[in-house]
Write a structure and sequence with these properties.
Shape of chain A: globular
Oligomer: heterodimer
Low-confidence stretches of chain A: none
CATH architecture of the largest domain in chain A: 3-Layer(aba) Sandwich
Largest sheet of chain A: 7 strands, mixed
Low-confidence stretches of chain B: none
Number of strands of chain B: 5
Order of helices and strands of chain B: EHEEEHEHHHH
CATH superfamily of chain B: Pyruvate-ferredoxin oxidoreductase, PFOR, domain III
Largest sheet of chain B: 5 strands, mixed
Structural class of chain A: alpha/beta
Number of domains of chain B: 1
Number of strands of chain A: 14
Helix content of chain A: 25-40%
Number of domains of chain A: 2
CATH architecture of chain B: 3-Layer(aba) Sandwich
Helix content of chain B: 40-55%
CATH class of the largest domain in chain A: Alpha Beta
CATH superfamily of the largest domain in chain A: Thiamin diphosphate (ThDP)-binding fold, Pyr/PP domains
Distance between the termini of chain A: 42 Å
Mean pLDDT of chain B: 95
Strand content of chain A: 15-25%
Strand order of the largest sheet of chain A: 3-2-4-5-7-6-12
Chain lengths: 352, 175
């Protein structure tokens, strides 16, 4: 067991995971707490004959990703909250142009420049589109350094499969923390599965491809939106992922994602050891939100408790999913506050 | 077993590295482990700290509010983190640069100077800490030091290993 584990930070794991997933192009601009990710790419992308660019701004970086993706490359960028806000225009253009691309957001406290502490307050921005127009990015939330690595493969696969942007949503803790990581030949679909006949690869001998998001013709943009919605419906049917813990007999079910889910998991296990019937649902994809997880809850379930590093964002999706059948309680902290195990236990005891 | 350690000192004292050696060794001994640094606008001479959790069980939060052990390398860190130690916790203090009325500590920096390299005070501290805690084997630490030393400076392996052993001897001598 000894040899194949290495100690790595989440930021580095995002980078190595992306490279293993066949990322050919990275453009980014530094911001704490994700600097180790861009630094990792600066060192390791050129070493493996891939393109690394430190762009002049976040805007430039996302538009370089747009270009590389249009040319058929596996392309990504990364940033932290304020930088991700700057990228929204480009992400919306990619959605309108149906371009695949991976965006890592290592969330920090907001609004505004906020601070550099961990946070989960970009949930709305990530899951609701974020830029203008009727669109969705697929959103995946890793909870460990291992998953930061593993989920990059999934992110690139889903991006190519659906010609869609994929946001990998982490936070300052996940980015900065080091944990043992098993580098595995990821269980990944070979990239050759994803042919890109739409890409701008030079049109000698074929009809030119056009990539754009500007459609002025009568009804053309509406037709595009209708087909986008069809795609989003398909993604909702096929790609929702979650992890359930003790859902057979839970009286109270915690709901948490990312860093908060690993803290909640320890709480659940500790309370189980004391005979308390606590369960947990951990959404892995935040969009599509795993609504199904909430449809067959056990008869004895009396309440759900959502725990977030925000003032209450995912809690809205949980309320929509249970649709009034169960009371949904909330525990959250903002601006860099992280609910501790003791705080969660206290909250559970207060609602039991 | 879960051990929560806060390591603190000045930027440049090898605080992050101390934590990494500890974390790497814990990994090699198949423990669950997390390492969390203070991050942001950190500077040489400024405040530096990291948090390491070593456990037989899966770790939730890598953040430590109450530590089982503190490894403190200078005076300002002592004041800053003293009340973060849980009752009956271990304070491993660098008495060369910090004084505490209740805990005598060990002169990590002086020992490092005698060895001929001020910078290995961190490994002296690690040696003392592990002699007190007896949580990871000396062989594993030695292996980690070998692995982490820069390839172009193999001479650093020996001095760091010596420092680590000297730290253990401090505890044996003074109890």
């Amino acid at each position: 067991m000894k040899a194949n584990k290495i100690l790595m930070s989440g930021n580095e794991a995002f980078g190595e995971g992306a490279i293993q997933a066949g990322c050919q192009f990275y453009a980014g601009y530094p911001i704490t707490p994700q600097n180790e990710l861009i630094a990792y790419m600066a060192r390791h992308m050129p070493e493996r004959n891939k393109v690394f660019i430190q762009a002049e701004s976040e805007l430039a970086a996302i538009n370089m990703v747009f270009g590389a993706s249009a040319a058929g490359m596996r392309a990504m960028t990364s940033s932290s909250s304020p930088g991700i806000s700057l990228k929204q225009e480009g992400i919306s253009y990619m959605a309108g142009s149906q371009l695949p691309g991976v965006i890592v957001n290592v969330m920090r406290g907001g609004p505004g420049l906020g601070n550099i502490s961990p946070s989960q307050s970009d949930y709305f921005q990530a899951t609701r589109g974020g830029g203008h127009g009727d669109y969705h990015s697929i959103v995946i939330a890793p909870a460990s350094v291992q998953e930061a690595y593993d989920f990059m493969g999934l992110a690139f696969d889903l991006a190519d499969k659906y010609r869609n942007t994929v946001i990998v949503l982490g936070d300052g803790i996940l980015g900065q923390m080091m944990e043992p990581l098993r580098l595995s030949a990821a269980n990944q679909t070979p990239q050759t599965e994803y042919q890109k006949p739409w890409a701008l690869t030079g049109c000698k001998g074929r009809k030119p491809n056009i990539i754009r998001s500007l459609y002025l013709g009568d009804g053309v943009l509406e037709a595009l939106n209708v087909s986008l919605q069809k795609k989003y419906q398909l993604i909702q049917q096929e790609e929702a992922r979650y992890e359930g813990l003790f859902l057979d007999d839970a009286e109270i079910i915690l709901v948490a994602y990312g860093t908060m889910s690993r803290i909640s998991k320890v709480v659940v296990n500790n309370l189980r050891d004391k005979g308390k019937k606590i369960g947990m649902i951990r959404p892995i994809t935040l969009w599509p939100f795993p609504k199904k997880a909430f449809s067959g809850l056990p008869a004895m379930c009396s309440k759900l408790l959502v725990v977030e590093m925000s003032c209450g964002q995912m809690v809205e999706d949980v309320r929509l999913s249970v649709n009034g059948k169960y009371p949904v309680e909330f525990l959250g902290r903002a601006g860099g506050g992280v609910p501790a195990e003791e705080e969660i236990i206290e909250k559970i005891e207060s609602i039991l | 077993m879960t051990e929560r350690i806060i390591i603190a000192g000045a930027g440049g004292q090898g605080i992050m590295l101390l934590g990494k050696v500890l974390a790497e060794a814990a990994m090699l001994e198949n423990k669950f482990v997390t390492w969390l640094p203070a991050y942001g606008a950190e500077v040489r001479g400024g405040k530096a700290f990291c948090m390491v959790i070593i456990s037989d069980k899966e770790i939730g939060s890598p953040y430590i509010s109450k530590a089982d052990s503190l490894i403190i390398m200078n005076e300002p860190s002592l004041h800053h983190f003293k009340n973060r130690l849980r009752e009956k916790g271990f304070l491993v203090l660098n008495s060369s640069l910090a004084k505490d009325a209740l805990v005598p500590g060990y002169p990590f920096t002086d020992v490092a100077l005698k060895l001929g390299n001020l910078k290995v005070a961190n490994m002296v501290a690690l040696g003392s800490y592990l002699a007190l805690k007896n949580m990871l084997s000396r062989e594993t630490i030695s292996e980690v030091i070998k692995k982490m030393a820069p390839k172009d400076k193999p001479e650093l392996i020996e001095i760091n290993q010596k420092a680590f052993i000297a730290g253990g001897d401090l505890v044996k001598k003074n109890g």
